[in-house]
Design brief:
By secondary structure, this protein is α+β, with helices and mostly antiparallel strands. It contains ten helices and twelve strands. α1 packs parallel to α6 and α8 packs across α9.
């Protein structure tokens, strides 16, 4: 059975373009930094390059292409991420120890898989079309992970120093918030299998009742976050969930990840191009669910549900600052009305990552892709400046554990309409 509804011709992604973009992202990275692993949640770039080829080899070439010969008989064990149906995966926390195979051999593995995937046999190409689409969306997810994992690696390198002589300490922003009101009622949530690609966790499309609510017109900015910090937000347990406060204390959080002050007290933020002065108007980024929830409580608001977010975003075109810009840093909002719903930063919601009513995982091994993770995580929506735009749609659900913050994650505030106070 196909892993998803086959896409229309206009929705089909170009295999070679996606595969080449993965290589283009890493073209200027050194061999040494592509082999390093900064924490158990991250993976070396070299492993990402191999795993995305493993996906095509294991899901398409071996079962569907007669006579295909694997590049290496042991690569299945090394580059399986979490698919128990394909054997015992190599421990995630130890991927940085894989000095072999070399980067050169991994690139040869990619070329081997690419050559087999581009066979001219028409019957094979038609049979695998839905699986290729799944594989390309999987690879685009790993393109984003390569960027976020590399940034976390750079954070640990003392050669990346905070510049001096930047703007003096920024003033906390206490400007009035703007919000849009929604009457709620019966709405349709989720992706429709008949309208192009979607992951199984986005389906089925189903009715959902929303109470009246208000959603801020833009994400919370760095300047607004500075006001939270200046008011003792990281020191006040009243703002925090119990688990969040414990995490904040254990990790000694005092600011978002990748923020650092220079000797003059000015804040700077690390990006993939190095440190830069903090932009007070750009969305706050690299915060955990715990931090997002604490800010919302401090502001007298709350995080939106994922259904509220999707209902508000669905009428708007998928347009914004995505990975294709090559500027992997959130930018200040521009425009009127609801802005930055897509791109710049993923937006935490208060919704746990759980199955929709009527959810059925994809049959077979592909069913391990999403459904097995529906426990203890929270949903983020909208994509970021590191997300390929071809991945984004209103129903796309990202999910992370509440303590994680190395992704490009921010927040947008919501309130119950009957109790909305649109001033902080």
């Amino acid at each position: 059975m196909n892993p998803m509804t086959a896409p229309s011709a206009g929705d089909r992604l170009c295999f070679s373009q996606v595969r080449q973009r993965t290589l283009a992202l890493t073209a200027q990275w050194s061999i040494e930094e592509m082999a390093a692993q900064s924490m158990p949640d991250a993976s070396p770039t070299k492993w990402h390059l191999a795993h995305t080829s493993w996906f095509f080899e294991q899901f398409i070439l071996l079962p569907l292409l007669p006579g295909y010969r694997p590049f290496h008989p042991r690569f299945n064990a090394l580059f399986n991420s979490y698919y128990q149906g394909h054997g015992q995966p190599y421990p995630r926390s130890q991927r940085g120890l894989l000095a072999r195979p070399s980067l050169e051999e991994v690139l040869a593995y990619r070329a081997h898989v690419d050559e087999a995937m581009t066979t001219p046999e028409e019957h094979f190409r038609e049979t695998i079309a839905p699986w290729v689409t799944l594989g390309l969306h999987h690879e685009m997810q790993h393109q984003e992970l390569m960027l976020t994992d590399r940034l976390h690696l750079l954070w640990h390198n003392p050669l990346h120093r905070v510049p001096t002589g930047g703007p003096r300490s920024l003033r906390p922003a206490l400007e009035a918030r703007e919000a849009q009101s929604f009457v709620g009622g019966r709405v349709e949530i989720g992706s429709d299998a008949a309208n192009g690609f979607s992951f199984d966790c986005e389906r089925p499309r189903h009715p959902h009742h929303l109470a009246p609510y208000a959603l801020d017109s833009r994400p919370v900015s760095n300047g607004q976050w500075l006001a939270f910090m200046a008011d003792g937000g990281y020191r006040n347990p009243d703002c925090w969930l119990s688990d969040g406060w414990q995490c904040c204390q254990n990790e000694q959080w005092q600011a978002p990840l990748y923020w650092q002050q220079d000797s003059q007290g000015a804040w700077h933020q690390l990006g993939l191009a190095g440190f830069a002065p903090l932009d007070p108007d750009a969305p706050v980024c690299h915060i955990s669910y715990f931090e997002a929830d604490a800010y919302a409580r401090w502001a007298g608001a709350r995080l939106p549900t994922e259904q509220e977010w999707e209902h508000a975003a669905a009428p708007h075109p998928v347009a914004g600052h995505f990975a294709e810009s090559g500027m992997w840093r959130p930018r200040a909002a521009n425009g009127e009305g609801m802005v930055q719903l897509y791109g710049d930063v993923w937006e935490w919601t208060q919704s746990p990552y759980v199955p929709y009513p009527g959810f059925r995982p994809t049959p077979g091994i592909a069913g391990e892709y999403n459904g097995k993770f529906m426990c203890g995580q929270f949903v983020l929506r909208g994509g970021s400046c590191a997300t390929p735009v071809a991945q984004m749609r209103p129903g796309y659900r990202n999910f992370f554990y509440p303590h994680q913050r190395w992704q490009f994650s921010g927040l947008r505030l919501a309130q119950d309409l009957n109790h909305a106070r649109l001033q902080p």
